[in-house]
Predict the structure.
Amino acid sequence: MQYRRLGASGLQLSALSFGAWLTFGRQIDRDRARELIAVAWDHGINFFDNAEAYANGQAEQVMGDVIADLRLPRDGFCVSSKVMFGSAENPCPTQRGLSRKHVIEACNAALKRLRVDHLDLYFCHRPDPDTPVAETVAAMDTLVRQGKVLYWGTSEWPAQMIQKAVRIAHERYFQPPSMEQPQYNLLCRERVEIEYEPLYAGLGLGTTIWSPLASGVLTGKYGKGFPEDTRLGRSPSEVVKRQALGRPDERRLERVGHFVSIAVELGEKPAALAIAWCLRNPNVSSVILGASKTEQLLENLQALDLAKRYDDSVWQRVEAAFK
């Protein structure tokens, strides 16, 4: 495993991490979850990502139980949660958002579900138009001072809003955000590569990117629909499926077909190749993997070697497939 600093912080995260979105608490049982976390840990993964909204809190409950069962040393791993959407099935106004009330209460609930006394990383899952940014920054600072959160950050926030949060934090001597969790893959590049570019050196921002396979689209397995044994095939959310496939004018499946042909020519698995491409970005602190089977996870871990195997000419061909 390789380890990278979380932006300008001193926290060392595994370059590949493991997340619970769409799997824990929904698609896989506790035994499978235990097996996946054990394999991830045995291969050097030290960061496990979660959120209050994943399976309405059940994903955190399962992850917490599994980590406790495996007796992983608390000082050897990092665990995250995210706050915004709430964990209730139909949350009332005070059960969601980024108000001081919900941020603090959601953190306390996540600590109980994950069975830890602090969150290593805590993300604002999306912007909240109904809460002043200053209120959210102050709430996060409170949690940091209480020792319940070590690093806090954002997920899919506009760069301008992140800069505002940092400015408020500096003005009031609060803890500023350290990281952002954006989607990043061969089909989704603009925010990470262009919008956030000034923030890496300017603010020391780190990134823990999600969906490196575009919900599995970059594996090439959705060319003829959604097989029942795949992530999108099991997902009840039509919104997730539409987002994964994109608009017709984006020609995502056609472009993915070109990419898969390159992977086959190289003798590589498309999934590992796509993840390796993400790893080559120096502003990516950690790539969050999502797997429902051990063989998938092991295959994706091969990306570490692939990222170093080929020269720039090969990666230029890979990128050209998506133009």
In short: The chain has a mean pLDDT of 94.
